[in-house]
């Protein structure tokens, strides 16, 4: 199985503090073949941790990764 880290859009209720940076707080692992489809068609992807969201951003090196996704990914056997 091939996966890549993606983001789940973060939403904040009105009246809460926000920053000028619209970067997501955490990125998730999802199946690699679903990334382009989601980005182009607007469909939702399912992360290893179970989160469901549309692809909106790509991670940069050093971006924070969902701990649950990372734990699941690290426990998977290497692919062929």
Order of helical and strand elements = EEHEEH
Q: How would you write the strand order of the largest sheet?
A: 1-2
Distance between the termini: 9 Å
Number of strands: 4
Instruction: State the domain count.
Output: 1
* Share of residues in helices: 10-25%
The structural class is: alpha+beta
Stretches where pLDDT is under 50 for at least 5 consecutive residues are 14-20
Shape category: globular
How much is the radius of gyration in Å?
13 Å
How many separate helices?
2
Reported for the largest beta sheet, the result is: 2 strands, antiparallel
The overall pLDDT, averaged over residues, is: 79
The share of residues in extended strands comes to 15-25%
């Amino acid at each position: 199985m091939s996966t890549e880290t993606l983001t789940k859009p973060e939403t904040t209720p009105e009246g809460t503090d926000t920053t000028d940076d619209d970067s997501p707080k955490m990125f998730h692992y999802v199946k690699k073949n679903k990334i382009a489809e989601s980005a182009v068609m607007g469909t939702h992807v399912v992360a290893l941790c179970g989160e469901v969201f549309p692809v909106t951003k790509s991670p940069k090196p050093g971006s924070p990764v969902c701990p649950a996704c990372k734990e699941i990914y690290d426990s998977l056997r290497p692919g062929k």
